[in-house]
Amino acid sequence: MGVSLLELLTSEVGYVYYLAVLAARRGEGIGALLLDDALERFHRSQIRVVYGAAEKDNAPSLGLFRSRGFRVVERRELGYADGGLGAWGLRSRMRLVHGERLMGKRLGTDAARKE
Questions:
Q1: What kind and span of H or E run contains 95?
Q2: pTM of the model
Q3: What are the domain boundaries of the chain?
Q4: Which of 9, 76, 85, 115 is the 20 to 30 A CA-CA neighbour of 96?
Q5: pLDDT tens figures, 37-80
């Protein structure tokens, strides 16, 4: 029905590398369950920052990430280690393709997890 692929980029940074649901099963909450599971796994592993990406015209995927507190990461933003969500030095490992929007979220506190 669905799949998520997760990757540790550093000891503090996780990446939702791939999240997909069969077209016939979309809209049933499967993507949300997969993303929630990924965030919980990263949280238990003491990951501080999580990134994900979706094509800029994929409103449902972008909306799912936003509903879980992710926001678009700007290219010139402060790096994650400096208080921002900039992915300096990590983007090439994320396998981003043209047209994808990088999104990020800080973990670690209950408030950050519920954003």
A1: none
A2: 0.88
A3: 2-89
A4: 115
A5: 999 999 999 999 999 999 999 999 999 999 999 999 998 899 99
